[in-house]
Amino acid sequence: MLNVTDLAVTKWESDASLPNTITLIKIADYFNVSIDYLLCRKYISYINSGNNVVKIHEKYPYNLSPEDVERLINHLRDIGFDIDKLIKNIKESSK
């Protein structure tokens, strides 16, 4: 999809370099986040998880990436959590 080398990704992960503009756009589109979020310039991001939207905020203590959140949601579903009910309860309790 991105047509990049493993070495390029390793450099991005170690902050040795950044992806070019076109690649940043593709990554942002794929994960449904802004380029500012990818560059840590915007500290609030939304990701889709099925019919739910997960909000990631700068004060969130675990600093999870969108893919980490997606894996967490999938893991919780796998072990029997009703994610839709959990999110509904959280939304209702914050009103």
Automatic annotation (TrEMBL):
UniProt GO molecular function: DNA binding
Lineage: superkingdom: Bacteria
Annotated ranges, domain HTH cro/C1-type: 1-38
Coiled coil regions, renumbered to chain: none
Protein name (record): Helix-turn-helix transcriptional regulator
The species this protein was found in: Clostridium intestinale
